[in-house]
Amino acid sequence: MVNRKELDPDRSPSAALGARLRGLRDERGWTQDELGNRMGCSGAHISAVETGRRKPTRRFSATVDRVFGTGDRFERQSLAVRQTALIEGFPEYVTHEARASEIRLYEVGVIPGLLQTLEYSAALEADAVRREAITPEQADERVGLVERRQAALVRSPSPLILAVLDEGCIRRPMGSPVVMEAQFARLLRFAELPNTVLQIAPFSMGERRPFNLPITVLTMADRSLMSYAESSHRGHLERESAFVLPILTAYHQLQAEALSQAASVAMIEQARKGTL
Prior knowledge:
The chain is α/β, with parallel strands linked by helices. The chain contains twelve helices and six strands.
């Protein structure tokens, strides 16, 4: 079938569930629209669940079991997907990030995932486990995603990555001094790459900082724009250029007010000395 996306069931619980749903559908020779008609939803909804872009609700999963006569097996499998540690909307964003030609990001408080060492990421998630905000298995899922996101950007042509970090990102210790030393070294290597720009937004910017929360702007290969932002419970991927362009303008203003890359590297080196 043309444009049929290959599914890797080993990639995540969501991917495994999507592959199973497709397998059940293929066994009966149904199209996504035909299954949607039997379930009372659209074929596009079936597609989104199969490809991991949408989590199945409990009602959806129970309907799958009813339509295919699988008892409660699909519903039980879907529980692992609904209990994932990844915020709603983020998995869909990651699929676009992996194909973007330009990535502009701003982060507050912690080093962003694309620039984290795995040790830094593990220390961050270990604290979430300590607070019982997530399970150890969910922590492993988050750390694994950091590794996969970074690997997806090792491609040709390399995407342009522009990162502005609030000063708090480098002032906040995470894990042991050894972990922070390695993280600072990772930032300095990132700044040396030919396809990157790294800047620090110092505390002294005060009210001139245009964003109070993390934001990412993606430029795709066709030059279309997307932005991604998160609340405490869900992420929002914006595809309408009319709404993304003001965010891009604010990002340019942020870059103009932030330290130059040379001055940012000097600040990171200064912070690094405190870990030695």
